[in-house]
Amino acid sequence: MKKFIFDVDGTLTDSRQQIDLSFEVYMIKFCCKYDVYLVTGSDRAKTVEQVGLDIYNRSKRVYNCSGADVYEKGNNILITRFMRIAMFKQQDVTTTI
């Protein structure tokens, strides 16, 4: 099967925007036919907001946070030490405010 790697911001979507609905339909079909990998600097929540859950979960693998947080078929398969520290610090700041 052919493999395709896509950046999200500025490639599949306008920067920080949601995917165009007609293009979303096309991409869902594309994901069913080919192995699609997404790479983005954004976190999972922002990526799902941009491309939708269907494309996100149909992608073979999604590299969020520039590869520091990786999902495969919607399941988190890798979270780097850097991401765990960042999440801990964010949680610590949230609970102290």
Q: Mean of the pLDDT scores? A: 88
Class by alpha and beta content? alpha/beta
Shape: globular
Poorly predicted regions: 93-97
Query: The biggest beta sheet, please?
Result: 5 strands, mixed
How is this structure best described in words?
This protein has helices spanning 21-33, 44-51, 53-58, 81-96; strands at residues 3-7, 35-39, 61-64, 69-72, 75-79. A five-stranded mixed sheet has the order 1-2-3-4-5. It is 44% helix and 24% strand. 19% of the residues are buried. The protein is α/β, with parallel strands linked by helices and 97 residues long. It contains four helices and five strands. The N and C termini lie far apart (50 Å).
Sequence-ordered SSE layout with sheet pairings:
Elements: E1 3-7, H1 21-33, E2 35-39, H2 44-51, H3 53-58, E3 61-64, E4 69-72, E5 75-79, H4 81-96
Parallel strand pairs: 1-2, 2-3
Antiparallel strand pairs: 3-4, 4-5
Summary tags:
97 residues, alpha/beta, five-stranded mixed sheet, 4 helices, globular, disordered C terminus
Task: Provide a compact summary of the structure.
The chain has 97 residues and is α/β, with parallel strands linked by helices. Helices cover 44% and strands 24% of the residues. The protein has helices spanning 21-33, 44-51, 53-58, 81-96, and strands spanning 3-7, 35-39, 61-64, 69-72, 75-79.
